[in-house]
Amino acid sequence: GRFGSVARIFDAAMMAPLTLCVVFAPRFIQAQSQSVGALTQLYGQGVRVLLVVSVLLALLGFGLSRTLTDQLLPPEYAGTGDLLRMLFVGLPGLSLYLFNVAMMLGNRTQTRPALLLTALVLSQVGVALVMVSAHGEQGAAEAMVISSTLAAAATGKEGGRKHPALGWMPATHTPKVEP
Fold first, then answer.
1. Are 92 and 55 in contact (CB under 8 A)?
2. What is the structure's pLDDT at 38?
3. The pLDDT value given to residue 130
4. How far apart are the C-alpha atoms of 142 and 121, rounded to whole Å?
5. Helices 15-31 and 36-72 sit at what angle, rounded to 10 degrees?
6. What is the pLDDT of residue 113?
7. 67-98 pLDDT, tens per residue?
8. Using CA atoms, how far apart are residues 37 and 47, in angstroms rounded to an integer?
9. How many CB atoms lie within 10 A of CB 154?
10. Residue among 84, 77, 83 at smallest CA distance from 57
11. CB count, 10 Å around CB of 81?
């Protein structure tokens, strides 16, 4: 339907942040044997690049949403630009969540990312049930933004309790201590 077509355009925009996550995941694995400071520095570098890319994509997508839907979708999908615009609002949060999952996978913590991804899906379904019944297809877009933002916050908050030196990442390894 209308939301699905708009979501395909959004999925295409998510390729750049996803690529960054894929590029950084092996580097996170290599960094596990280094000091906490080196791992923190790698995460910081990655997040800065990711946020620049995702915020720029979000701003560009937000500004061009109506043009993109008018040019890329058939005439019966006219007026779906606002749906796409709402999805672009959530792009930085979704990107940060996926980056945090890549870091946890690099930390060889398979269970936690799987649980968090499951929680994202379940929260999105729960929020979507409420939002779609109240706001239709716009509610579906709003539900995606809310659940992605909550997922990004959850990965940050949960990890901060486990490993204060990294601020968010769960401590499942003992980092090498530098003299």
1. yes
2. 80
3. 87
4. 14
5. 170
6. 66
7. 999 999 999 998 899 999 999 999 999 898 88
8. 15
9. 17
10. 84
11. 19
DSSP string, the chain: -HHHHHHHHHHHHTHHHHHHHHHHHHHHHHHTTS-HHHHHHHHHHHHHHHHHHHHHHHHHHHHHHHHHHHHHS-GGGTT-HHHHHHHHHTHHHHHHHHHHHHHHHHTT--HHHHHHHHHHHHHHHHHHHHHHHHHHHHHHHHHHHHHHHHHHHHHHHHHHHH-TTTSSS---S-PPPP-
Residue whose token pair is 């690529």: 19
**Token pair of 57, please?**
């994509």
What the block records as the tokens of 109 is 């913590």
Residue 144: predicted pLDDT: 83
Contact (CB, 8 A) for 105 and 30 = no
Q: Contact, 166 vs 39, CB < 8 A? A: yes
Using 50 as the pLDDT threshold, list the residues of the chain that sit under it. 158-179
Task: Dig out the tokens for 126 from the structure.
Answer: 């729960």
